């Protein structure tokens, strides 16, 4: 079964998504997600000019060899652009493998470890009470784990809260440039405990609560936050600090027992190796699209299991539904799966383009039983919604110093 054609398609059903479609010489095709928010076209060029020409004529069944060829064979390893391209190829090949076998991908990984995948939803609000109202709505819908993000008083914009804006495109106007946002650690600390005091008072202890710092604190500030929030029994604190220097988490760990989660910006197992083997984190949040696909995600999960670290894959809206489908197969299989981030299945346009077969009931998602990844892609519908240049925001401290967004 030879690779005959590789298509790279960019569409914008509210967000830019990069989709790869691999077609074999006997007509079977598979799809994968190569989206890299704010740098989409860099991945497109890399795929079209450098990756696709190398794969035409290769055996589509040899997933492992192709993955090694694209990772080890290029010399310039790792990196967000490279790994997003590899990820899309890898997902598409697993999709083909499942279709050839007549089995869903999770069966090829080893079968189910659970009946369904536990999700956590997002409650974002313009103030604490609005956030809690959103959380209550999600709890009524059946979700048993909620991430709480509230706007910070006296800051114009807060991560996760767009105010009257629908999306990042509206923040950028007619001339798309990275929108700039301010950050104040002190103002954040003035608000954050109140959010969780009121959440526990309102919802009790039977709902799992989570929070994303989005890497805005230094390690010692994160240690302080961990101490403050310990008593509210969070499932985990996400991205408390940047961990490019993985020793940063030693400082946080020695000061608090709050569970820690990180990994959405990581591209390989090497980015999280020390954090996992030194047991400095409790959840690893790598995403299939940004970490090279299903093949390396399986290795990360197995490695993490040796050190009692659970998986909690990134599930932001800038990962396409194809990535979510890949995560579903990994999640239902991985014995050390923890929880999956969930922001819904997109708008009506997105649902026309990406035709997935996943059901959600009582805060749990049920994997597709169709062969392959269980998701399809409508090329004709996608053409109606072309690429629109966009960026994620840039963050600065109140004195103008560039900071972590």
Quick synopsis:
This protein has 405 residues and is α/β, with parallel strands linked by helices. The protein contains 14 helices and 18 strands.
Largest sheet: 10 strands, mixed
Strand runs, count = 18
Give the count of helical stretches: 14
The CATH topology name of the largest domain reads TIM Barrel
Unreliably modeled segments:
none
Determine Rg (CA atoms, Å): 21 Å
- Helix fraction by DSSP (H/I, runs of at least 4): 25-40%
Query: What CATH first level of the largest domain would be assigned?
Result: Alpha Beta
What would you say the CATH architecture of the largest domain is? Answer: Alpha-Beta Barrel
The averaged pLDDT comes out at 96
The termini sit apart by 45 Å
Indicate the structural class: alpha/beta
For CATH, the homologous superfamily of the largest domain is named as Enolase-like C-terminal domain
What is the 3D shape?
globular
Beta-strand content: 15-25%
Quickly count the domains: 2
């Amino acid at each position: 079964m030879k690779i005959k054609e590789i298509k790279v398609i960019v569409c914008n059903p509210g967000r830019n998504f990069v989709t790869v479609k691999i077609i074999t010489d006997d007509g079977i095709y598979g799809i994968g997600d190569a989206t890299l928010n704010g740098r989409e076209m860099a991945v497109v060029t890399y795929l079209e000019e450098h990756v696709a020409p190398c794969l035409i004529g290769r055996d589509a069944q040899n997933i492992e060899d192709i993955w090694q060829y694209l990772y080890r064979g290029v010399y310039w390893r790792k990196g967000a652009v490279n790994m997003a391209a590899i990820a899309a190829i890898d997902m598409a090949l697993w999709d083909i493998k499942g279709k050839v076998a007549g089995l869903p991908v999770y069966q090829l990984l080893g079968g189910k470890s659970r009946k369904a995948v536990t999700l956590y939803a997002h409650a974002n609000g313009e103030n604490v009470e609005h956030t809690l109202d959103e959380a209550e709505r999600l709890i009524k819908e059946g979700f048993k784990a909620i991430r709480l993000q509230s706007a910070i008083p006296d800051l114009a914009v807060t991560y996760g809260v767009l105010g009257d804006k629908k999306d990042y495109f509206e923040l950028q106007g007619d001339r798309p440039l990275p929108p700039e946002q301010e950050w104040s650690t002190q103002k954040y600390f003035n608000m954050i405990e109140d959010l969780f005091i009121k959440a526990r008072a309102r919802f009790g202890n039977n709902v799992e609560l989570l929070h994303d710092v989005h890497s805005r604190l230094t390690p010692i500030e994160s240690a302080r936050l961990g101490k403050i929030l310990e008593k509210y029994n969070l499932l985990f604190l996400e991205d408390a600090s940047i961990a490019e220097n993985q020793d940063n988490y030693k400082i946080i760990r020695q000061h608090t027992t709050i569970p820690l989660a990180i990994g959405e910006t990581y591209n390989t197992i090497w980015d999280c190796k020390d954090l996992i083997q030194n047991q400095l984190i409790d959840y690893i949040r790598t995403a299939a699209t940004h970490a090279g696909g299903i093949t390396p995600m399986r290795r990360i999960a197995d490695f993490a299991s040796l050190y009692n670290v659970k998986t909690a894959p990134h599930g932001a809206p800038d990962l396409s539904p194809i990535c979510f489908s890949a995560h579903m197969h990994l999640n239902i299989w991985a014995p050390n799966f923890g929880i999956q981030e969930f922001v819904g299945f997109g708008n009506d346009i997105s649902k026309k383009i990406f035709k997935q077969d996943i059901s959600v009931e009582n805060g749990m998602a049920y994997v597709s039983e169709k062969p392959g990844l269980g998701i399809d892609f409508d090329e004709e519908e996608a053409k109606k919604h072309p690429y629109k240049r966009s960026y994620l925001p840039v963050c600065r401290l109140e004195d103008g110093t560039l900071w972590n967004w």
